[in-house]
Amino acid sequence: MVIDNTYYGNHAVRNTTRGLRLYNEVGYIDIHGDSVSYHYMVRDYLGSIRAIVGPGGTLEQATDYTVTGIPYTATTDQSGNRRLHTGKELRTFNGLYHYDNHARIYDPLTGRFTTIDPLAGQYPSLTPYNHCANNPLTFIDSNGMEIVIAEEDRKNTSFNMRLGLVRSALRKYRLSQQYDEIEQSKEFKLTIKNASGDKNSNYFEPSTQTLYIDLFNAVIHKEGVNSPLFILRHEMDHIHAYMVDRVGYKMRMEAKDKQYDNLEEKRVITGDDIKAGKVLEEPTRTKHGQYIRVYIDDPTSNDLNIEIVREKQHLINNSEMK
Ligand SMILES: [Zn+2]
Fold it and tell me: Phi and psi (nearest 5°) for 296?
């Protein structure tokens, strides 16, 4: 029996007579006395929870949904998990059958919200009770206020998870001093954007204080492979320099350098990049030159297939000869 639920954004603590259940984006942890067990959510492209996988890989819940989100084949349910369609919580108390989308309550039986859209005036062609512009296979409603393309949302979620992984790895390796100071600054507000797939990524735009970073691809250059972790630290080094001394940063950026393009790159590549390279066992560049990006599963690693690395390095060497 549930005694109470406490919510912290996407996180929740469920206090039951059996113990505690702690929810986050990837699953939940059950704590019953001395026993602690981890349970993972398997999501589809809409973010719907299709399965709960428990300790040892046991299938504890499996769910399919109608288009509007009615769960219809719970082939097994030993979990009691109520986070279902698009990851929202299904409320069944008092005979109701509603999803809690934060700002509004969604009724999957009619495919509509129970109250009108506070921004309905902006969408005169749609009923104010509509859910996902009546296109729940393309869009998801993240909070009852706005709809987003499901695919985009999934990319952002995996980007944020990668950023979290890289962030904690930098702390673990004691390479996060500049990152920490940037985060702690009251005047300087850095925006970090997922630039995976963009031609222009891994660069800092001072005018908007935005970092465009690709955490899905490692970088292969002549000296070897650098992880997204290494690249993020490199960028934070530039951003920190800009934050503490804009004039000096600008002067170094404008001062050309044969080997490293400019003196700001030289400062980072021949400075803390070498220190980070030693800690992470990654190579540092001997020039600020050409590179090729290759997808990597683990953003904290530079461990790519050696054949792929050689092939890409061959391409780089050939293009530089021309
Ligand atoms: Zn750089």
Answer: -135, 135
Which tokens is 122 given? 């902006």
**What element of type H or E holds 206?**
none
pLDDT digits (tens, 9 = 90+) for 57-115: 999 999 999 999 999 876 778 888 889 999 899 988 888 899 998 889 999 999 999 99
Residue 4 structure tokens:
């109470």
Report how far apart, in Å, the C-alpha atoms of 316 and of each of 70, 200, 201, 222, 273 are.
53, 18, 19, 7, 22
Question: Which amino acid, one-letter code, is at 103?
Answer: A
Distance of alpha carbon 301 from alpha carbon 216, whole angstroms? 11
- 3-state helix, strand and coil shares in percent for the chain, rounded to the nearest 5: 30, 30, 40
Interval between CA 114 and ligand 1 midpoint (Å): 51
End-to-end CA separation in angstroms for the chain: 72
Tally of CB atoms within 10 A around 143: 12
Which residue in this structure is represented by tokens 């005047």?
187
Mean pLDDT check: name the lowest of 9-23, 216-230, 242-256, 302-316.
Answer: 9-23
Residues in the 5 Å CB sphere of ion ligand 1: 265
Distance from Cα 265 to the centre of ligand 1, integer Å: 5
Cα-Cα-Cα-Cα torsion 124, 130, 133, 137, nearest 10 degrees, comes to: 180
CA 163 / ligand 1 centre spacing (Å): 19
Task: Please tell me the distance from the alpha carbon of residue 259 to that of residue 195, in angstroms, as a whole number.
Answer: 26
d(CA 133, CA 246): 46
Higher-confidence residue of 122 and 277: namely: 277
Q: What is the whole-number distance in angstroms between the Cα of residue 249 and the centre of ligand 1?
A: 12
Task: Output the CA 234–ligand 1 centroid distance in Å.
Answer: 6
